[in-house]
Specification:
The structure holds two protein chains of two kinds. By secondary structure, chain A is of the alpha+beta class. Helices cover about 25% and strands about 35% of the residues of chain A. Classes of the chains: A alpha+beta, B alpha/beta.
Amino acid sequence: MTPGEFRLRVTWVKAGRLRWLSHLEVLHALERVIRRSKLEYAVTHGFSPHMKIAFGPALPVGTAGQTEYADVWLTRYTGADEALEALRKAAPADLEPIGAQYVGDRVPSLTAALTIALYRVELVGGELGEDHVRRVVLELMRRGELHIEQKGKTKAFDLAVCIPKDPSVSVEEGSVVVELPVRMGPHGSLRPEVFIRAALAASGAEVSAIRTTRTDLLIESEDGSWQRPV
Amino acid sequence: MTTSNLWDRLEPLLASVERPARYIDHEFGAQHKAADYRVALIYPDTYEIGQANQAIAILYDCLNAIDGVAAERCYLPWLDLADKMREHEIPLFTLESTSPVAECELVGITLPYELTYSNIVEALDLAGIAPRAADRGEGAPLVIGGGPCAFNPEPVADFFDAILIGEGEEAAGEMVAVHRACIAEGASRAETLRRLAQVGGVYVPSLYTPVRAEDGSLVAIEAAEGAPARVEKRIVADLDSVATPACPVVPFMDVIHDRQNVEILRGCTRGCRFCQAGMVYRPVRERSADTIVKATLAGLACTGYDEVSLTSLSSADHSQIEDVLRRLMRRLTGTGVSVSLPSLRVDAFSVDLARLISSGKKSGLTFAPEAGTQRLRDVINKNVVEEDLINTVRAAFEAGWRRVKLYFMIGLPTETDEDIQGIGQLVYKVLTTAREATPPSQRGGLKIGVSVSTFVPKAETPFQWEPMLTLEEVRRRQGVLRESMPHKGVDLSWHESEVSILEGVMARGGREISAVIEAAWRRGARFDAWTEQYRLNRWVEALEECGVDPVAIANRTRDVDEVLPWEHLTSGVSARYLVRERERAYSATTTPDCSFGGCTGCDVCGDLGVDVLIAGGERR
């Protein structure tokens, strides 16, 4: 532990309209939440001093998050519940801190530790049947590999590595919902809506609007089990 | 009035447009208020350009503080969304309620600079409001303008029901009160406008008729019965009596001036003869050090910003600036929060101030000598001598700065090629001084930024009668400058000359320009301030279509006795003073700053019943 610094792990959500924020916009907004909360935060000692804070993996524009994390280093210990309350009061609606817990300094960083993301993908509109979606998604899984064109280059994803469990498909409020885990890592991480669009395209189907939510971020232990970082 | 929420129709479009954060509202500090009387405050450019606009932030607070009144913000959607909105028949909306602008009772549009004029038509058209006031029915919202360009609003006068000349803190509420009373009484639109014209500073264009001679020249501007013959600007006598926005909206996306802004003083009487702001915002009124420090700390706590800017036309001139900065630095050191001063004078005191707030990080300093020779600096009354500039630059580089940016203008009245070459020579001396003051090991990365704009004569200045250079002459003089400029160690940038030409027509044009703006907009003109969107040919064609000669507006020497298109409006500075200043310019005679010494006779204090207000008693 850096003497005199306390590492607070904050769980927060990105919901509603704020799903349209970019990662960078979320970072700035949360830094401002912390300043408004009046919690005493640590400042880096570099040439350009700034708040000592670290975030988990980025959420793209348009994707919501139900359980996102950030570590912030405080210079004065404030009870975790009290700190959460202060943060909550300072936050805009839909970018709300929902948990806070102190963690040790030797706990690995969020970006290094979090390798599994659970997604809920809603196919808005409802022209596609649940069975159809289930069939094409599982067919693509069985093919085992997905080639994606990115900026003129083709990137191959090994689906057994990238999507460690078969997606599940259900219907909620008239929309088909696909839930799936994605493994993040040096091999790159596959965006769930890209996977689903590819599965649908293979059967000649298309979907007009997709609403993606990251429901959880997890650590994959050596024994293969998945756990939350707090 | 009912409001319809457009969000469910808008959201599906966001996945395919750039920067959806422009359109989503929900920022910290956004005020959501249910009220019968709703005002849309429109900035006629994108969210990231307009979000930090102080006028909108001030009016947003003032109007939302009134019972029964809700003010909401609106920015012009970028081309991608605007086109999709038209395709899906979604009208222009306010952010807070995502409801149509046309459902508001009052639509306020700020006039920040001339190049946004085509965006006013774009905004009104997108909103489904007739662009011309004369075409609006009884049920249409009142469209009211205001802002820096209101001192010659004639080019856009046909688009507005009323225009506020001057400061809005007090007038905005008065206008709303008159309008609400008219609604309650069921008064007609025409009657409402007649009553609005009684509010101080309010100009109702439809009550004034330009009278032209056979040759087309303006001979008079006739006021309708009951309307003031001359509209005088509104002014707030004591800034401490009106609050600076305490907890403004904190944007999510990266916007320009993304920081807490605290206006520390209004007005500048340095008297630069080309400067419209220096004439029309007179007299100088300082906020007190206590108010500034309190507002800054409260604003930072409320917004969570990590930077505060102490804004004004000339912040180093504040009589208590050093005290303010020392007090702020005492409180902010170690918090990662920085303080910035947007406008520095060319003197050693400014470098001391910059050093006080730099806390190790020395990003760059900006100075504005404006002209290259002492003669021309005397003509424009820029009271800077070469020795000041050299000493200031030496002090800055000795204190550790490695980047300095200098602002110049070409095309100023009486300018010769020698004056232009003088810019190159001055930059060379600055560069040499900077090198000498920098340790040899650090000289490699040393850069002097030189930014050169083209002089555009503006209304209500001593140069309002002066001709602007033609496009060909601007280009020739830019060539002279390029040749005289040292190449190594200088970053030279221009203001696009084709853009300046349009600015020149807009700045001093009359009512005939409204048709030109509409014609250019029909040819696709919008976002003209975005260089990549600007096409001069659209404007040339629009001018031809409307039979308007741009040369007669921009490139002609006007007679001091001729009737100017803004003759019926006044900032309080007298024509007598402007003429005298013009004569002094021709004899290269300077005029001192009245906030440091005695009155120089611009007549603004007497005309408007206000006074220079120096918080610390005297300036140094």
